[in-house]
Amino acid sequence: MSSPCDPKYAPVGDIGAALMMIDSRLKAVYDSKTETDPEQQQMVDQFAATLGPTGLDELLDGTGTLIYMFMQWLRKACEDADEDVIEYSVSALVATMRMMPKTFRPEVIPTMAGLLIAAGIGLSPNLWRAQYGPWTDAEMNPLEATAVLLAEHINRITGDHDFATRLITEALSRSDQTDEG
Q1: 23-66 pLDDT tens trace
Q2: Buried (b) or exposed (e) across 106-134, using 16+ Cβ within 10 A?
Q3: Which tens digit of pLDDT belongs to each residue from 101-134?
Q4: Structure pTM?
Q5: Superkingdom of the source (predicted)?
């Protein structure tokens, strides 16, 4: 039985822009800086300002697509280790969110956990979230931070700070090759 939240019905969005923002945040985390580099933050803010309303929607959809792709990779990795992706990954990510009250206010954690669970069971996080209305301003930073935490979780599992970014880049490259050939 098909679900209205099946990924085949979901907009893909601007995965490249979303990946650029996530990768930028990961680099800041790995550079062991206690604060975001003001120059880097200004660059990201300028980029976001150039998007306009449709560009922002594309970026949001791209971020949801990244969450879906990361969770699918985690689901396969967990299955290979006889683990449950929800138990293994979502609980750890939610625990991390709870330790970051400035980024994740308590009221947004259930939504972010829902995105992860939807993606973990093969549903589109974008379509799952859409059934509750448009994104709110209060959800913007937590959405980005959720994608960053997820990418960092994958990087920690693999022991490679660039694995999550490379995973998506290679998938996009394979997709481009399939579209051309």
Answers
A1: 988 988 888 655 556 666 666 666 666 666 678 889 999 999 99
A2: eebbebbbbbbbbbbeebbbbbbbbeeee
A3: 998 999 999 999 999 999 999 999 999 999 999 9
A4: 0.87
A5: Bacteria
